[in-house]
TrEMBL record:
Domain Ferritin/DPS intervals: 39-173
Protein name: Ferritin/DPS domain-containing protein
One term of GO molecular function: ferric iron binding
InterPro entries with a match to the protein in the record: DPS_DNA-bd, DPS_DNA-bd_CS, Ferritin-like, Ferritin-like_SF, Ferritin_DPS_dom
CDD domains tied to this protein: DPS (cd01043)
Protein family according to the UniProt entry: Belongs to the Dps family.
Coiled coil stretches, renumbered: none
Pfam families xrefs: Ferritin
Length: 173
């Protein structure tokens, strides 16, 4: 690139190329892992939205306990989506960040009505189990590529979602 200096002389500007990603994971594996983690991100964000919606709209005799529980859950999910997106970026891919992208990638069904509290709990059990299954699917690819940071992130997410599903399911018994 050439620019004019104050004295009218032309001087060259040096443009440095971004170095290639060299973290010990082949590019095709990084792309496959990032695509899978993008699905985990979409599921997590969709579950975040559903949980926040239920927090706002829950009614009935369990209002206070569910309102507070849902707030804890969506707050945790808000932090998680940031960690998940940052892992995608560390792998060299663009993290999806729009509703339309999430809609294409997620397996979490959207809820546009206001179900009763029991149905909210059932839907959240299903949602947490979906995220755990998606993370488990991606784990195999990360493990095969020796991508320990992604495997660690996915393990943490599976543990949390399985525990949350269990706790919610216990409220239905």
């Amino acid at each position: 690139m050439v620019s004019n200096s104050a004295s009218g002389r032309r001087k060259k500007e040096v443009i440095m190329a971004t170095p290639a990603i060299n973290i010990g994971i082949e590019e095709n594996a990084r792309v496959e892992i990032a695509d899978g983690v993008s699905r985990v991100l979409a599921d997590s964000y969709s579950l975040y939205l559903k949980t926040h919606n239920f927090h706002w709209n829950v009614t009935g005799p369990m209002f206070n306990s569910l309102h507070n529980m849902f707030e804890e859950q969506y707050t945790e999910l808000a932090t998680a989506v940031d960690d998940i997106a940052e892992r995608i970026r560390a792998l060299g891919a663009r993290a999806p960040g729009s509703y339309s992208e999430y809609a294409k990638l997620t397996s979490i069904p959207e809820e546009s009505s206001t179900p009763d509290a029991q149905e909210m709990i059932r839907q959240l059990v299903t949602g947490h189990e979906i995220v755990a299954r998606t993370a488990r699917e991606v784990f195999a690819t990360a493990d095969e590529a020796h991508d320990e940071p992604t495997a660690d992130l996915l393990t943490e997410r599976m543990q949390l979602h399985e525990k949350t599903a269990w706790m919610l399911r216990s409220m239905l018994e």
